Amino acid sequence: MCMKRILSCLVMLSLTITMIGCSSKSNEEIESLKREIDGLKSANEKLMNQTKRVDLKLSGDFSVTVQKLIVEDPTTNVKNLALVSFFQASVFLLPVGEETSMKLKEGKAYTFKLLDSTIKDYLYDDFKKGQYSVELFLSEGMVKFELVGEAKEDELGMNSYRIKVEEVSK
Questions:
Q1: Which residues contact 46 (CB under 8 A, 6 or more apart)?
Q2: Which of 113, 64, 69, 114 lies closest to 88, judged by CA?
Q3: ∠ CA 154-158-162, rounded to 5°
Q4: pLDDT band at residue 169, thresholds of 50, 70 and 90?
Q5: Which of these, 45, 125, 141, 151, could form a disulfide with 155 (CB 3.0-4.6 Å)?
Q6: Quick check: 73 and 79 in contact, CB under 8 A?
């Protein structure tokens, strides 16, 4: 009985020494593992940001020059699209609707006010990098707006773009 106890203590002691020997790493190896873990955490965070989605709230107003009024549906002959541009920028289509298009004249600048507009599920990484296009949001009908009237002198030129885009907490 005593012999079994001594034998089991020796076995436990040898296992303990073996485990200590297997788990002992040098400080250099530990630091290397910590750096590797930090790198993996950073890569994981970057990947999460690339797939994380947020809502964007757009507010403010803008002034654009109407280059051309366009008929979307030839069967109705209603001009409900406007080819517009911000100051010194490329043109884009603005879906203005029939009622608003009747108030617009080609070659004139107009001010529009954004209504309660939220873009749902936008890529967080793209938002943080500024990789979004208000022109695309407007032309795709993702943002609601209304005509204020002809643009005033202080709403033209470099002051024509007064839109604020911010992240909305979900």
A1: none
A2: 64
A3: 75
A4: low
A5: 151
A6: no
Distance CA 41, CA 48 (A): 10
pTM: 0.65
Alpha helices in 67-156 (DSSP H): 97-101, 124-128, 134-139
Short-list 89, 91, 95, 96, CA closest to 147 = 96
What pLDDT digit, counting tens, does each position of 123-155 carry?
877 878 877 888 888 888 888 999 999 999 888
Q: Do residues 55 and 142 lie in contact, with contact meaning Cβ atoms separated by under 8 Å?
A: no
Distance separating alpha carbons of residues 51 and 4, to the nearest angstrom: 61
Burial of 134 (0-12, 13-18, 19+ CB in 10 A): buried
Say whether 96 sits in a helix, a strand or coil. coil
Total number of residues shown for the chain: 170
